[in-house]
TrEMBL record:
Pfam families named in the record: CBM13-like, GH123_cat, Glyco_hydro_123_N_2
Signal peptide: none
InterPro entries: CBM13-like, CBM6, Galactose-bd-like_sf, GH123_cat, Glyco_hydro_123_N_2
GO molecular function: carbohydrate binding
CDD domains membership: CBM35_Lmo2446-like
Domain of life: Bacteria
Protein name: DUF4091 domain-containing protein
Organism of origin: Kribbella albertanoniae
Span of domain CBM6: 578-704
Amino acid sequence: MPESDFHPCCSSRQGDLLMSPHRLLIPLVVLALLMTGATPAVAAVARVWTADSWKRVFQTDQRPAGASTSINWDAARNEAESYQILLRHTASFTITGVTFSALTGSAGSIPAGNLEYKFQNHHAPEGGQLFPDPLGNERSTTVAANRTQGIWVTVNVPAGQAAGTYTGSVDVATSTGAIAVPMRLTVYPIDAPNAIDSKYIYSTWNVFFNEYADLDGSVVADEIVDRYRFPRYSAQWWKLMEDFAKEQKATRQNQVHISIDPLLDGPTTLVGDTYHFDWSKFDQFVELFIRHGSVARLRGNPLLNALHTDQVWIIDNVDGQHKVTLAPVGSAKADRWLDQYLPALKAHLDAKGWSDIWYQTISDEPKEDKLDNYNWAVGKYRQYFGADAKTQDAVIGLFPELAGNLSVWIPLIDKLQENEQFYRDRQAAGDEVWTYVCLQPDARLGWLNRWSNYPAYTARQLAWGNFKYGATGFFHWGYNAWTAGQFGNVEEFPGDGYIVYPDLANGTVRTSVRSLATRDGNEEYELLSILKRRDPAAAQRLADALMRGYDNFTDDTDLMARTRKELLLRAAGTALPPRVEAEDGRLTGTGRLDTVGNGYTGSGYVGWLDQASGSSVTVDVTAARPGPQVVEIRYSNGTDTTNTLTLLVNGAVPRKVEFLPTGDWNTTWSSAYATVDLAAGANTITLRHDADDGSVDPDSLTLW
C-alpha cells in the first residue's frame, strides 16, 4: 500500500474524526431485499440493509444506494462474529421481536441458540451528538420516524464445528410486517483457543466494589450500590456479578481485578495488633468468575497507592470501624499489615489452588521519584511469595530501575512504540510485555484508543498493533468506572472510563460495540499467532497491512475485511482465491493490453483507458456464495493525485473506486479495495473510465 493510504485517526476538535467519509461508511452493493409476505404493510418498512462489524452507522444515516440485505460471516471455529441489520422508515414503527432459524449445511448444523441479537443504543459523551456504542438488552424497541435502528446479530461458532457453508434466516417482526434477512456463514477448519487457555491476556480495571482516592484513601464511588441501589452481597448484587462475568467471557476478557473490599467485608478484623482474616466474601467473588469460565489470571489489588507510590493500602480500625485506608511506607501500620496480610494471602491462595494464576499489582503507574518504594514493596511481597512471584503494573515512563522486580510490563502504546527494543529485551529476559491505554495517548492526536466517539475498529486494531509489536496482553483502566469516567456528563475523554454501560431498568449490564470490537481483535490476534507458527513472514505482512504503528493505521474498512479473510484462509491452510487478470477481460474504447514496465502479473495489464470516455475492461468472476465480498484491484497510478474509475457489477449500480498514487507508472503496483454484492456463480465486474475519472492501469482482480 502506498504510504498515503495510512494516516492517523485525528481531529481538529474532540469528537470529529478526520477520516475519509467514504472509508467510514462505504455503501454495500446491491442484493435484492428479501421480505416474507409481500403485502403493503411489509413494503411500508421502506429501508432495510445490512453492514458488517467494521462499519459505524449513525441514527441519521440513510440506506446507501445498492446496499446489501443479507448477513455474510466468515469465521473460525470457536469464534464469535457479528453483523448489523439496519432499519429505517419515514414513520415511527416498533420492532416486536427477532428470531433465528438454525444455520444448516451439508456438513451439519448450528443451533438457533448459538445466535443472539442486541439493539443498537446510543449515548452523547460530548453532551450533543449521539454515538452508536451501547448495545441494549431490550427484546423490542420503538423506532422514531426517519431514524436508523441497528440490530447487532452475533453467531457463536462451536469449537470443532465442521468446516463448510451454513445458511439460515433471521426474522425481524415489526408493527408494519415481517422481514426475513438471509444469513450465510462460512466456517474455516481452524479453531480459536478459549480465552481461558490463551497466552494473550485482556484485562480492565473493574469497579465492582469501592473506588478509592489515591491521596487519602477516601471512597470515590461504589458503582453498584450508588447506581443500582443493590446492597452489596444481596441476591441482586450477585446476579449482577454473574452478568459481568458472562459479559467478560463473551468478549474474551480473561483476567479479573480483585479489590481489597471482599477481604474487608469477610469481615477481616484487627484486634490489638493482630489481624483475623476472613476470606469468605473473597472466595465467593473469585469462585463466581472462575465458575463462569472467564478467568485465566487473578490480578491482586495494588499494595501501594498509584501515581504517588508512597503509601500502603491497609485495613485498619478507624474510630471503631474497620476500613480500607492508607499508611505511609515504612510506618508501623504499613509493616504490621504487610507482614500479616501477605503470608495469610499466600497460604490461602495455596489452599485454593490459585497461587499460579495470581499476579500482584504493586503500584499502578508508579511514580518516577518513588521507584525505591516500588522495589521495596516487591521485596516484601517476594519475601512471602517466593523469588519468582509474578508482579504486573501499568507504567507511563521508561523505568529500567524496575528490571527484575516487574514481571509484566504494561506500557502505554506510544511508549512501547517509541521504546520497542527496551521491551523486546525485557521479553528476552523472560518478562511479559502488554500494552495500555488510559486517557492517553490522546486519540485526538492520532493514537489508537477505545474512545466511544471514534469508530469501534480503532479498538479492534489495538490487537493487530499488539501482534505487530509482540505484546502479549492488553490492559485498560475503565471497565465500569462510570463515575470517574464522567458517564452521564460531558466527558473530556469519551468512554475512556468504561467499556460497558449500566442497565438500571433490567438490573444488568449493557455491553458495547467497542467491547465486541475488542473481542474481534483478540480473536484475530489468536489467528495471527496460529499463522505465525506456520509462516511468520505472512503473519507479519498481514499485520503490517493494517498497522504501520499505533498512530499510523488504515481507515479502509474494505482492506480490513479483505485482510481478515486472507488471515482466515492462511491460518486454516486453505487455498487463496484465484487472481483474475484484467488484460484477459473484454476491452472497449481505447483500452488495450500493455506490457511496458515490470512487476505486473499475468501477460500484462490494461492501459490507455483514459484516452476516451467510456473505455472499459470487463472481467468474469465466479462467486462461491451470494452477497457482499471484497474485490482487490491491483493497479498502477503514476500521477501525483488520487484518481478514480467507475466500477459496475453485472452492469448495474455504478460507483467510484479511488486509486491512490503509486509513485510511478507500471513498475510500482498497489491495491484498491471495494465491497461488491455478487450473485452465486457467474458475475461480471467492469472498470470504466468516465469523463470525471482519472488515469489508472488495472492489472488484476481478486475476490476475497
